[in-house]
Design a protein that fits this description.
Layout lengths: L3 E5 L3 E7 L2 H19 L7 H13 L8 E7 L1 H11 L4 E9 L2 H9 L2 E12 L2 E6 L4 E4 L2 H4 L12 H4 L1 E6 L7 H7 L5 E6 L7 H7 L4 E7 H8 L4 H8 L3 E7 L5 E5 L5 E3 L12 H16 L3 H7 L5 H25 L5 H13 L1
Parallel strand pairs: 1-4, 1-8, 2-6, 4-5, 8-9, 9-10, 10-11
Antiparallel strand pairs: 2-3, 6-7, 11-12, 12-13
Helix pairs in contact: 1-2, 3-11, 11-13
Length: 354
């Protein structure tokens, strides 16, 4: 039987509204600005007047916005678990949910995701509001509600981890520390993402990661904000303290993989028509971990490959992981959905033929 990949992360509800609000707003403001410039060309630097024009554009929009609306499962933990399951990885999800959310458990089981690590507490399940339009997506978060999903109540015995190969914290946060500390007792490959939303300073990162991980994913812009440094090499000098393999994503500019033996393995991306970039980072990590799951047998195998004697083999394997991750993210932004394994393979084949 195949070993599981365990995902640790949030599971909540996403309330979607699809409408043309942002497009209509942009058009109203642009019309007002053009009219203002036509008759007041000398007042372009008048901040008070320009602010008044922009506000009037908002005021002219209807108070009630008609939308197509629906509710879906959301949260980094949910998304990563689903993306990995779609790519045929056996997944367990550790999370906490509130009341009136049993429907999410049913959906996850239908996706072949093991829900034995999901705990329900007597709090309202958080809802994020997501407004989608043709050119942008905005997510309204409620961190005050999310913090009530307390992981202190999570109690898992050792058997839960015995059939697992890798555990992925997405993103690493203070609320997951109890689980993180317990996992250290087990011989699992340890992976995590770091996001500025959860970690704002180097000191916070130091407190969250007392134990070195095996893989660390971080957006390069987030790394710059957290560490107050622009240079990727300087950033990696710091982050090598926290992980054996560091993966930096940089949107359309590609990604970079570092280890103590490998300096800046660059993974380029390819041009696709972007519909929506939301979820690209989660998809990239899922793609990377999928290929990593198949190429690295266990933690001992990983440790052997990280030695300098096997550097060429390690580079080859990590390059495969990076390329697969990139195609997974490319599929997501160009199709507005995560790929199933067969769909992704067909998508990759189109590019490799070119």
């Amino acid at each position: 039987m195949s070993k599981h990949l365990i995902v640790v992360g949030e599971l909540h509800q996403d309330l979607y509204y699809e409408n043309t609000f942002y497009e209509d707003l942009v058009n109203k403001i642009v019309d007002k600005l053009i009219n203002f410039i036509r008759y007041n060309p000398d007042d372009l630097m008048n901040r008070r007047l320009l602010t008044k024009i922009v506000k009037s554009g908002f005021s002219d929009t209807p108070k009630k916005i008609l939308s197509k609306s629906y509710i879906k499962r959301g949260g980094n933990g949910n998304n990563s678990a689903e993306y990995l399951s779609d790519l045929d990885i056996p997944v367990k999800l550790i999370s906490v949910i509130g009341t009136e959310s049993e429907w999410m458990l049913e959906e996850l089981r239908k996706k072949n995701i093991d829900t034995g690590g999901i705990f329900q507490i007597q709090e309202k399940t958080p809802i994020s509001t997501i407004i989608k339009s043709e050119f942008t997506t905005k997510i309204y978060l409620a961190p005050n509600l999310k913090e009530r999903m307390d992981f202190q109540s999570v109690s898992l015995n050792n058997s839960f981890f015995s059939d697992a190969k890798l555990i992925f914290f997405t993103p690493l946060a203070e609320k997951f520390k109890t689980i993180f500390d317990k996992v250290i007792e087990h011989d699992l490959i340890l992976a995590s993402t770091i996001e500025y939303q959860k970690v704002q300073t180097h000191e916070q990162l130091r407190q969250l990661l007392p134990q070195k991980t095996d893989l660390l994913f971080i957006n390069l812009d987030d790394a710059r904000l957290i560490l107050q440094d622009e240079n990727i090499d300087d950033i990696d000098t710091i982050l090598q303290t926290y992980s054996q393999i560091r993966i930096y994503t940089d949107g359309k500019n590609g990604s970079y993989i570092f280890t103590n033996e490998i300096s800046k393995l660059f993974i380029p991306t390819k041009e696709v028509k972007v519909i929506d970039r939301t979820g690209a980072g989660d998809c990239y990590a899922a793609g990377f971990l999928t290929k990593f799951y198949h190429l690295f047998q266990n933690k001992e195998h990983l440790e052997r490959l990280l030695s300098s004697e096997l550097k060429a083999d390690l580079i080859s394997k990590l390059e495969e992981c990076g390329k697969y991750a990139t195609y997974t993210a490319m599929y997501k932004v160009s199709h507005q959905k995560s790929p199933a394994k067969d769909d992704l393979e067909g998508f990759i084949a189109k590019f490799t033929k070119e």
